[in-house]
Write a structure and sequence with these properties.
By secondary structure, the chain is mainly alpha-helical. Helices cover about 80% and strands about 0% of the residues.
């Protein structure tokens, strides 16, 4: 007896393909450079260059604080979610009995339930590593901000190189944070698998539509791109 049906495997392959395809679209294609994430990288560089012309940079450091705190919050939330997934794994029999009483409940063997839960835990662990690394990178950005040359040296080659390096590190931190959030979104889609492969396909498609619209067809993008109307 196979662990999963053909339809389950099709839904799982569709989930992995949707996640990987969306990531490639956003991070590696020319179309992705028109998205919200890519445009914010340009504003990060603009921020660093304008900061270079200021002598008083206390405001810049204050802006960094919520970026770091927000990333730390998501990293902590990831750990809590991992604990929840492990609890589901430990209480498989009780959760299976509860799931079968729900309107969309689908009967599943203990092995199937545990395999699905391990997959959910892997997604959440991936998200934690992304958030934790983004938090560390934001700390490095703060150090780079502190090492920025003074305003009187803004036209020097050293100052320009430093700004470019800081902006690149800043964008890298943002990219890892975005990957962690993306994992959270797809984890929500993954939960549909507990209700069956058809629901899994539907929730995966719903997640892709939502995050695609936010990247390429949202009011936020129009505002950042200079077309708030």
């Amino acid at each position: 007896m196979t662990l999963f049906t053909i339809l389950d495997l099709v839904a799982l392959v569709g989930f992995v393909g949707a996640w990987g395809g969306y990531s490639i679209l956003v991070d590696w294609t020319p179309h992705g450079r028109l998205g919200l994430n890519s445009r914010m990288n340009g504003y990060r560089e603009m921020w660093m260059r304008r900061m270079l012309a200021r002598d008083n940079r206390m405001v810049d450091m204050q802006i960094m604080a919520p970026l770091q705190n927000g990333t730390a919050f998501f990293a902590s939330t990831s750990l809590i979610a991992i604990g929840g997934a492990l609890t589901l794994l430990r209480s498989s029999d009780d959760m299976i009995a509860l799931a079968t009483t729900l309107p969309l409940g689908v009967s599943a063997s203990r092995l199937q339930w545990e395999a699905k839960t391990v997959g959910l835990a892997v997604i959440l662990i991936y998200a934690f590593f992304k958030f934790a690394w983004a938090y560390r990178l934001y700390n490095y950005v703060a150090i780079m901000l502190g090492a920025t040359p003074s305003a009187v040296e803004k036209d020097s080659a050293e100052a320009q190189t430093h700004v470019t390096r800081t902006a690149h590190l800043f964008s890298t931190a943002g990219r890892h944070f975005n990957h962690g959030q993306r994992a959270f979104f797809f984890a929500l889609g993954y939960l549909g698998w507990y209700a069956g492969p058809i629901v899994f396909l539907a929730t995966t498609a719903a997640v892709v539509v939502v995050i695609w619209r936010r990247q390429f067809a949202s009011d936020s993008l129009r505002a950042v791109a200079g077309d708030p109307a």
